[in-house]
Design a protein that fits this description.
Blueprint: E1 2-6, E2 15-20, E3 33-34, H1 38-46, E4 51-55, E5 66-71, E6 74-79, H2 121-147, H3 154-178, H4 187-205, H5 210-222, H6 232-235, H7 243-249, H8 252-261, H9 268-276, H10 297-312, H11 323-330, H12 339-349, E7 357-360, E8 364-370, E9 380-386, E10 391-399, E11 409-412, H13 425-428
Antiparallel strand pairs: 1-4, 1-5, 2-3, 2-4, 5-6, 7-8, 7-11, 8-9, 9-10
Helix pairs in contact: 2-3, 2-4, 3-4, 3-5, 4-5, 4-10, 5-9, 8-9, 9-10, 10-11
């Protein structure tokens, strides 16, 4: 049986079927959980949630509370017994923890270690594929609702953000590499999904709390919402925009912020990232020409994630850059990004992100298929081409970090320079 109780009545051993309240009010990623210990109980009671729904068949019960009638559609009615209900506060709530309070590491980037993953890339690929497909559908519906002036279905987006975060915790590089791969006609929608995944990964590397990571994921999903207000002939133009057309496109951040202001309970950080993700730290960005610390940390993260996905994606007028080449290019744009955050972004993806083409000292070419925790310069590779012989060879896995391996990466390579087509198949195979 499902019962609604006040958080103050919660105790260890209860199974939470649902949190009642705003999605930013509780510190848990899971939509359901067992209150297994006092630490979990303490987090729940210190959160902004006032009520929870418990499942008495999956955990302990509490007497004298409101019982909920349940149908195949979920909870449909409330029969109050002895518990006096307290209405849930639906007002917008400021996220109390500031992500600016934990500065990124200052060590040389080559010394930074990627966090160990719970599963290998290949183990997580299938679930990541399902999330990307689902994300595309959700964002298409979101854009359609916004164009028609309908209320955006927040619940589905929040669930997507939660599930994507869980995928990133199992193995960040599976989803982060997969969202980069998109057809040019999918860019508008999958760009939002990619930005969301990148924002969550970067904010987690920054040491943000779980609520802030969730806000970052929502900011990524919604950062380009203002594009629904842009003329289709400009938004879908297959070639480079004229200066006049670009002036019109510069209006999309403010248009998006205006749309988000109309939504209740939208964290101000999400609106700010939408409005300012095209600002640059040297003050040359738009719409407000903010500089340095005038730009919020959420917006500075969004600027990096937005640009990285844009230049690594295939678009009608642009063939996507190799991931490693893209990072190298971005590093040469002084005044564009927050330097410390950009270094942390590289650490998050790896100096040679999954899918990068690299040259080895052994005069061979390889594709990066997995990051090695603690060894950014020694990822796991799939060797497939002999430079000396100018020919494809039988693909083989190479662990640069393995004992006895003397081969090393000596540089990045442009796939187009070698006439290679789709190299992503070399790491997308489940057997890799």
């Amino acid at each position: 049986m499902l019962k609604k109780i006040a958080v103050e009545q919660s105790t260890t051993g209860m199974f939470v079927h649902q949190f009642c309240g705003s999605w930013v009010d509780h510190p848990f990623w899971s939509k359901q959980l067992l209150i297994a210990d006092d630490v979990t109980l303490g987090k729940l009671r210190m959160s902004g949630i006032r009520d929870i729904i418990i499942d008495t068949e999956r955990g302990v019960d509490v007497a004298g509370v409101a019982s909920l009638a349940v149908t195949s559609d979920g909870v449909t009615s409330l029969a109050v017994t002895s518990l006096e209900e307290s209405p849930v506060d639906e007002a917008p709530r400021e996220v109390s923890q500031s992500i600016a309070s934990s500065p990124p590491p200052s060590r040389d980037i080559t010394e930074l270690a990627t966090a160990p993953a719970r599963h290998g890339v290949s183990d997580e690929l299938e679930r990541a594929r399902e999330l990307v497909a689902r994300g595309k559908r959700d964002v298409i519906l979101m854009f359609a609702d916004a164009r028609m002036g309908r209320v955006i279905a927040r619940e589905g987006l929040e669930s997507l953000v939660s599930d994507m975060s869980e995928s990133l915790m199992r193995n960040a590089h599976a989803l982060l590499a997969l969202v980069r791969i998109k057809r040019s006609d999918e860019y508008t929608y999958l760009h939002s999904v990619a930005a969301s995944a990148l924002m969550m990964a970067l904010s987690r590397s920054h040491g943000c709390d779980e609520q802030t990571i969730r806000v970052a994921g929502m900011a990524g999903l919604l950062h380009d919402l203002g594009k629904v207000a842009m003329p289709d002939h400009i938004l879908n133009k297959p070639g480079k925009l004229t200066e006049t057309e670009f002036d019109i496109m510069r209006g999309h951040p403010r248009a998006g912020a205006d749309l988000l202001h109309a939504l209740s309970e939208m964290p101000p950080e999400v609106i700010d990232a939408c409005l300012h993700h095209h600002e640059k730290v040297d003050g040359s960005g738009y719409p407000s020409r903010l500089a340095g610390d005038q730009i919020s940390l959420m917006a500075r993260m969004a600027a990096i994630c937005d640009v990285y996905d844009a230049i690594t994606s295939n678009r009608p007028y642009h063939s996507g850059d190799d991931p490693s080449i893209a990072l190298s290019r971005m590093a040469k744009w002084p005044g564009h990004f927050d330097t410390g955050l950009f270094q942390l972004f590289v650490r998050t993806l790896g100096i040679y992100p999954v899918g990068s083409l690299v040259r080895l000292a052994s005069d061979r070419l390889a594709i990066v298929v997995e990051q090695t925790p603690g060894a950014l310069l020694r990822p796991r590779l799939q060797v497939f081409f002999s430079i000396a012989g100018r020919q494809w060879i039988t693909p083989q896995v190479l662990e640069l970090d393995a004992d006895g391996c003397s081969d090393v990466i000596v540089g990045r390579e442009e796939p187009d320079a070698w006439g290679f087509g789709d190299l992503d198949r070399l790491w997308l195979q489940p057997s890799v």
